[in-house]
Amino acid sequence: MYNILVVEDTAVVRKILENLIGSNPFFRCVSCKDFASVHEVMKQNVDFLAAVVDLNLPDAPNGEVVEEVLRHRIPTVVLTGSVDEPLRASLLAQGVLDYITKDASYSYRQVVKILERLRKNLSIKVLVVEDSLVCSNIMCNLLRKALIEVVVAKNGVEALRVLEKEPDIKMVISDHYMPEMSGFELVRQLREQPQYQNLTIIGVSAQGDPVMSAKFIKSGANDFLTKPFYQEEFYWRVFSALESMEMMEAIHKAVYVDVLTGIHNRRYLFEQGEKLFIEKHKFAGFGVCMFDLDEFKEVNDSLGHLIGDQLIAQFAGILKKTFADDLLGRYGGEEFVVISTRSEEALRKDIANFMYTVRCTLFTEKNLAMTCSVGVCFEPMTSLNESLGAADAQLYQAKAFGRNRVEPYDSEVA
């Protein structure tokens, strides 16, 4: 749970913020009604995700509370009755994240939206590709202020190397005019590679070319920024792009991820498996393995479906950990499939480790000792369906020969 500091002297407004922020299960409100209370809270060394601060308090009428909160390096959203240009410039110069006017109920929901964005940003890593040190520092400082982890590259060539080493990067913000490889070419190369199809990309360039934004977006960028830009515009573009990315991830999860186990479902397994099968000649091998929990029906019948679900989820967790480099999916019920493009020797080793782990694990709160059976197909087949059918036939043999086996090479693996 993340602490949110709320500083507001008006009781009604403070109550509204407490209710809205407190309704988020990730947040805990720490409220102060004046500057003196803020001083006392700061002495307690509480870690705050962010602060929502009224600009004018009875004992701090000139925004002194903003300086105090920022001094503790807490991302700060300022609430104010009205904003003019000098005040806007002053607030941003001090380092506030954003300012919200108290002119409608939507304003308070906007505060909560910003706070939720900050929470999500803790797991976001962004690559800034910019050869100008000044421009790079500006963008990096803005991103870090919003609690985003930042990685830097000076040109497109360096950016490709960084992305290969750090696959958890979610967004690239790239300038256009750079040595060795331009931002435009970087976007094109990224979109040509399957692993970067879901990467969010924002192009950046100085004014001068009116069609630059169209070139970037048509080549695969999600958005474009013209330098120089205002802080509010930068955050709006970045946050909107991140929200779009998260929406697409949620859609993907709903379509392709099994709700119970958190691994891919049968649909995804077939779609991606077909692609791997078509290109199997490029890989060290192509193996299809079918895993099935032994005596699962008895567990369900005797202990109930809740325990059965816990068992399946725990079993899937071991599969996911063991076969992290392979395509894994829930085939149906207690059956799972692994499609591997590694060598047969490497796959056999991992199957042996998996079988050993299952035998040594006590499953669910009932401490159940379980085993599983595995059918493997490494023979060249004419289709993925044939490979799955062959693995299923071997699984049937493993069950027929007493379960807790791997077929066709049980004596070598299990």
TrEMBL record:
EC number: 2.7.7.65
Residues the record lists as 4-aspartylphosphate modifications: D54, D175
UniProt cross-references to CDD domains, sorted A to Z: GGDEF
Keyword presence, Lipid biosynthesis: no
Gene Ontology cellular-component annotations: plasma membrane
Gene Ontology molecular function, alphabetical: diguanylate cyclase activity
SUPFAM superfamilies reported in the protein's UniProt record: CheY-like, Nucleotide cyclase
Domain GGDEF: 284-411
Keyword set, alphabetical order: Phosphoprotein
Domain Response regulatory: 3-117, 125-242
GO BP terms, alphabetized: cell adhesion involved in single-species biofilm formation; negative regulation of bacterial-type flagellum-dependent cell motility; phosphorelay signal transduction system
NCBIfam families assigned to the protein according to its UniProt record, in alphabetical order: GGDEF
Protein's UniProt name: diguanylate cyclase
Source organism: Marinomonas fungiae
